[in-house]
Fold each of these.
Amino acid sequence: LPIRLLADTAQTPAPDALNFLVFGDWGRRGEPDQAEVAAQMAKAARIFGPKFVVSVGDNFYMNGVKDVHDSHWKESFEDVYADPALRVPWHCILGNHDYHEGGDCDAQIAYHKINPRWNMPARYYQQTHQIDAKTTTDFFYLDTTPILGAARWSRKPSPMPPRRPRPNSLRGSTPRSPHQRRTGNSSSVIT
């Protein structure tokens, strides 16, 4: 990894900070690149003491998990992120590879019953975290894959939440997902 991405270059965090790790596109059955990233995450976790990890999708390459007993759980999650510094709650959301043929997204929701470190109570959820005695922050976990049309890979259609009218402040704006980027006056999807 480039030196600027190594955890050894991290600075000491503020003692009252809400520290957490965020990453995605990781479930590769413990391949060398995945193991190297996990080692750097563990180093960073020992420095920052994260309260949790946010996984932003594509949790299991190439085609998700088939059920809660799939060997992918052990090979890509439990064995790879086993360092004690990473044994914090993981708050996860689905990505398009979790939907690919053979992938059962409901298994990722149900896996919390097998391993309480894994948290995905639904395809869309919200959490509030305390920063200090007076301050909280909200995290919104949104499965954008169905919105982008990738649900065609799923054996089970993904239920969409009911649409709510946008507040006046958002009228005319375009919702964005982590899969989109702005290029000039138009948006393009990154896959």
Note: The chain is about 20% helix and 20% strand.
Amino acid sequence: LISLQIETNCNTLPTEIGNLKKLQRLDLQNNQLSTLPNSIKNLSELTYINLDSNKMIDITNIENLEKLRYISACGKNQNHISKLPSFKNLNYLTVLILNLSDNCSVQELNKISGCSQLKYLYLRPAIQSFPDSFCNLRNLRHLIYESDSEYYPDFIESIPNLYKVNILAKKQEYTPISLDQVNNEKEIMSN
């Protein structure tokens, strides 16, 4: 099995999911999940995980899934991520889409700067300030974030490959990039 979609309004995943060693794509959108089982760490071939429209607060269990290229944990009034993984082992991560909790600290945001290959970053709700370490996102091509004001972070000027920035007004609708767009978007996925 290389692809699995679970859309059953479940609030927990069985620990046996970690036995699917060849799984590459895991789509868990539209459930009631708040955390992932520790066994998720066994999915060493996973390249794509969609956690949209859940109740996620902690996604730290994915931090050693080295082949991940795409992580999405967003959704209307759903996910409120407050605990981020250490992204330093996710060397292939190119797309990161997160709906953060209002109390997600700058220290937590700082972890994102470990995504050396990140090309597409989407963050909401309103970001009040970005950590200075975001200037390390040298491969970032597209940044989308929500702001209460016209906040324009200083680090943007230091990213050589950044070609597009979208600053969204609070509660403005925006549809994050889909996997199909990722596969077809040369600017985002090219090396």
Note: The radius of gyration is 16 Å.
Amino acid sequence: AGPRQDLLAQEKPLLVDYLKRQGKLLLLADPATPASWGEIIAPWGLALSPGRVIDEVSYAFPDKFSPAVQRNQYLLGAVTKSLDTTFFPNARAVDITAILKQEIPEQDKDKDKVSPIQIVDMGLTTRSSWAETSSGEPKFDKDKDSPGPLALVTLVEATAPLGEKPPGQPLDKRTRLVVVGNSAFASNQFF
């Protein structure tokens, strides 16, 4: 949880290979999570957004840098139905990669084309949130900051990384990743 060091050169290919063989990964990423972890999730269509998430409506008072995901902001009921309000201090947003953003319109045009990757944003901030990328007094800058709602928890299920042909295994054999833009929420320090 909350990796603070880059993956070692010999660790990275092992983790990449494990994920390609229907591996599972839970990544709790903080703003200081090293880039090598972002490189691990990128082939699966995910990116860790720069900056820290601010939510002006739903947060752990008095810290707007501690967004709260309310029960009704959780999706995928079977997984999140027992969760109540959850705080994500110092969180970063989980986004989809530019490559996946290009692929989505192509799928809309070609209804027969099926992506090997399915992504579900499981926990979202409010529309009054953004990813603050500058230091100093927080203020939304439409040219630099990403507007909300933002995903703080994202699930990926995939038969293959982007751009790769799925192997011949049954379709129920899938790689699964859950990426959370914060590790401190797991400590449950607010309750």
Note: The helical segments are 11-20, 35-41, 77-80, 98-109.
Amino acid sequence: QITCALSIAAVSKLFFTKNSRVVMFFMGILSASAYFLMSVSTQVWMWYIAAVMLGVGMNCFTVVLPTALSNWFHSHKGLVVGLSMSASGVGGALYSPISSALISAYGWRTTAVITGIIGFVMVTLGSLFFHITPEKLGYKPFGEKTETKAAVQSGDKYSKPVPNWVLICALFSLLSVNSYTQLNNQIPTFA
């Protein structure tokens, strides 16, 4: 958590000044690499390096996803971010017993590798579809009314409303992200 707090400003700046999809992809690689390093760690200093990597890598989910959600939703921003954060709690509730079962069946080292692979796949897929703002895709934020029917008919660049499925995808993304981090809650019991 300390690493996350210390690096959040730099990581956030990267997201908003560079290509956010590329930054998200590399943060996912960093997080997955941390789990792989955990699986082969034999000394405490290796755990510390993995913790730093994980703290920096998880920053992409701490600030950027809630910010992106508020960009995509014009009305009810608080509701959307609140629902997303509660969905992340549901993800934790679902993944904790799965993680415990995997650790009991295969050991914590193998479970760390499995978690790294799952996280890498989730972040890679997420980074393919991730956009900080709907305007990059030609949409207006969800809940924002189009100016006039004439603007819609004329093909105004930002006249299309965001499809309703975006809310479902946003909630699923944060549910998945929190699931990815739940291994950290299970390892101390077994390691």
Note: Residues 108 and 168 are 32 Å apart (CA to CA).
